[in-house]
Structure formats: C-alpha cells, structure tokens
Specification:
225 residues; Four Helix Bundle (Hemerythrin (Met), subunit A); rod-shaped; mainly alpha
Length: 225
C-alpha cells in the first residue's frame, strides 16, 4: 500500500513543481519586460528633453545670427554714410546714435542665446567649448565696436561734422575689422554650432550626419565638439 501511495503522489508533485517553475519563469519574463519598458520610457524621455533643448537653442542661434547679419550690413554702410552724409542729408552724430540702437538689439539676442544655453546647460554640456568660443568672439567684437564708438565721440572733426580723409580711413579700417569678426561669429553660430547640434541630437535618432563647414581658406577656424 505504501508504494501505491508513494507512486500515486509523483504526478501531483511533478505537476506542482511544473506550476511553480512556470510561475517563476513567467515572473522573471515579466520583470525583464518591465525593466525593458522602463528603459524605453527613460530613453524616450531623454530624447524628448534633448529635442526641446535643441529647438530652443536653435531658435536662439537663429535670432542671434539674424541680428548679427543686420549689424554687419549696417556696419558696411557706415563708411558710405560718412563719405556722403551731406548728400544723404544726414548728420554725423546720427551714425553713432544708430550704432548704439542696432548694437543694443544685437546685445539682446546675444543675452537670449546665453540665457537659453545656460538654462539647458546639463543637456548641452558637450558643447561648452563651442559656447565659450562664441562668447569669446562676441567679447572681441564688442571691444572693436566700442573702439568705433569712441572714435566718433572723441574725434573733434567728426563731432563738428567735418570729417577728413584720415578720419574716414580710420573709420573704414575699424568697420572692416568689425565686418570680419561679425562674419566669423555668424559662421560659428549658424553653421558650426548648428551642425554639431543636429549631428549630436538628431543624428543619433535619424542615423544621419551633416558634413562640417569646409572654408576655402584652411587657416579659418571651424568649431567642433
């Protein structure tokens, strides 16, 4: 009888063991699926916040670059206005006043760019070197613009409205320097930084990469991470 009872329980025990094995296997698979689901959600969240930062910094880059182009265009007109201010029915004192106004708009866009970058600094940390280069170039540009303003306000012949050839040549040289630095800064922003941002944030999602800027003059600096 003992052996009958013993062997009659074997199928039950096997069935119970099989049930527990199936239960723990199912639990393990569910845990793996749960972990993968959390990882997928985290990845999606990371992509979302990176894309939001990307959109905001790209908008700031576009606004800053647009004002730089306007500023550069105005600077290019200064020597002409200086030469022909009488024919254009302008006063020489109007030029530094206009310069202050347009530089103020440019400074506002620069401040916006810095504010947007800093508000997403942890996301854009890999681009800090590019950001620092842009800030440095912007400071250099400011110094030259200040030199132009001081030239207008400290030169008696310009103040009295009797600019001579030497004055005009001096202003032309400063304006040329400002124009070159404006172009450099615009390229840093609208080309180098824009391309690096797209390659880093969008390139990993779309599996595509943009080519870096390749200036004809090999001595021209190109920013990269």
């Amino acid at each position: 009888m003992d052996w009958l009872i013993k062997y009659s329980l074997i199928p039950t025990i096997v069935s119970i063991c099989g049930w527990f094995a199936a239960f723990f296997l199912s639990l393990r698979l569910n845990n793996k699926a749960h972990v993968k689901n959390i990882e997928a959600q985290n990845k999606l969240f990371k992509q979302e916040i990176m894309y939001k930062a990307y959109c905001e910094i790209q908008a700031a880059i576009r606004n800053y670059s647009t004002e730089l182009i306007k500023f550069g265009t105005y600077i290019g007109s200064v020597p002409i206005n200086l030469k022909y201010y009488k024919e254009l029915n302008k006063s020489l004192i109007d030029i530094p006043r206009e310069l202050i106004n347009i530089k103020g708009r440019n400074d506002n866009m620069r401040f916006e760019f810095m504010t947007v970058y800093d508000s997403h600094e942890i996301i854009l940390l890999d681009f800090k070197q590019i950001r620092d280069e842009i800030i440095t170039e912007g400071n250099t540009l400011d110094a030259v613009v200040n030199r132009l303003q001081n030239t207008f306000y400290t030169n008696k012949s310009l103040i009295t409205g009797n600019a001579n050839k030497e004055d005009i040549a001096k202003i032309e040289n400063i304006c040329k320097e400002i124009g070159e630095k404006t172009i450099t800064l615009t390229c840093y922003l609208s080309m180098d930084f824009r391309i690096e941002l797209q390659n880093e944030i969008l390139g990993t999602i779309l599996d595509k990469q943009l080519s870096k800027r390749t200036p004809g003059d090999q001595s021209v600096k190109v920013l990269s991470k």
